[in-house]
Give the backbone structure.
Amino acid sequence: MYRKIISFLEAWKEDEHRKPLILQGARQVGKTYSILEFGRTHYENVAYFNFETNPKLNETFGEDISPDYLIPILSHIAGQTIVKEKTLIVFDEVQLCERALTSLKYFCEDAPEYHIIVAGSLLGVAVNRAKFSFPVGKVDMKTLYPMDMEEFMLALGEDDLVAQIKESFNTNAPLPSALHDAAMQLYRQYLVVGGMPECVMQFVETRDYILVRHTQDTILTSYLNDMSKYNNLNEIKKTRLAYDNITVQLSKKNTRFQYKLIKKGGRASEFENAIEWLCLSGVVSQVYKVEQVKKPLENYRDIDAFKIYVSDLGLLCAKKDLAANDVLYMVDELDDFKGGMAENYVNVQLSINGYRTYYWESERGAEIDFVIQRDGQLIPVEVKSADNTKAKSLKVYMDTYKPAYAIKLSAKNFAFEDNKKVVPLYAAFCI
């Protein structure tokens, strides 16, 4: 399956200032598959080391972590000669061996001609920063997310449709209605299946939503296990409570996160570590409110006001135990959840494209779902789950800040009207 990360890895390989690369991301987003596929197609051989399946590897890094010492031993373990620039060295589940992470500093300084990519699912939470110094400045870092809407459509063989969507996005010309309807159907399928590669592969092969749901449930269980395995004993229960509550809060009319909804009398001081754990593990992301829309947005964020979205739409539907047909046909019973689900979807697509997202709220309660910096401009992004796109809040924002233009995402076809770029939800990956 095509993954956009391959283009990034190709550029990394050719970069003369290349450093060892840390590819991070939540469990099951396809880190190992992408690295090995890249290695298979771009190198003479791949030396692969997994610290989870081979715990004895840790001993290799116990004494000396200089490249001169490690390379002959790693060649022996891999059963093949590791050759400079021709072999891709892969350390998987590297969070289980902090010394292996430290060794990257020495590969960078003393042996940059070796190409190394390491993958870790929970680097932000599993590595003991108090005892261990992260190789800051000595590594390149990249986050891999679940597959976006474009990758999902390409996996389903919709290459021509993707090309037409991109063309319509650039020209603001509406798609023929039959194609628009087909793309909206694919969008709803994406909400159910999500972007976890295993789930997408199963769906491509079988079109069986029940089988996909089983895989999603397995992934959710592995997330819960991680919460116990890589967490402070006092925090395990709080982390699970917070995680369970996030999906509930997405069903509220106001999706701003509230600690008191986790449990009666819940406060930030009690749950903020749990929220941080979930963010660092890549399971959720925080979107802060900005009090003013000025550059840089980071300077104007309100640290006490934020929304939380989950990293994958399919896992969101599985966690809510939503029936596939209810989402595919957007039944009325989901009315309270449709808005939160569409917002979550858009945040995922924007995050994958590298945007840091914020939201805005006026003193009188006008609210813009997202504010992003695009091509140097601060652009408001309004999200509607249906084709009813009258947005009073957007008018308030535009009167106040006079942006170059606004983006409105909804079920409506492409258009440009009243200085607003109208984009169908399925085309959020184009932004």
Summary: Residues 5-143 form a domain with the Rossmann fold fold (CATH 3.40.50.300). The CA atoms of residues 58 and 97 lie 6 Å apart. The chain has two domains: 5-143, 149-430.
